[in-house]
Amino acid sequence: MIAKEFLNRYRHINNYIDCKLEEVAWLRALATRLSPTAMFDKNGNVSDKVGRAAAKIVDLERVVDKQVDELVEIRSEIMRTISSVPDIEIRTMLEYRYINGWSWQKIATKMNYTRDHLTGYLHRKALRMVDEIINKNDVNTF
Question: Quick check: 29 and 72 in contact, CB under 8 A?
Answer without folding.
Answer: no
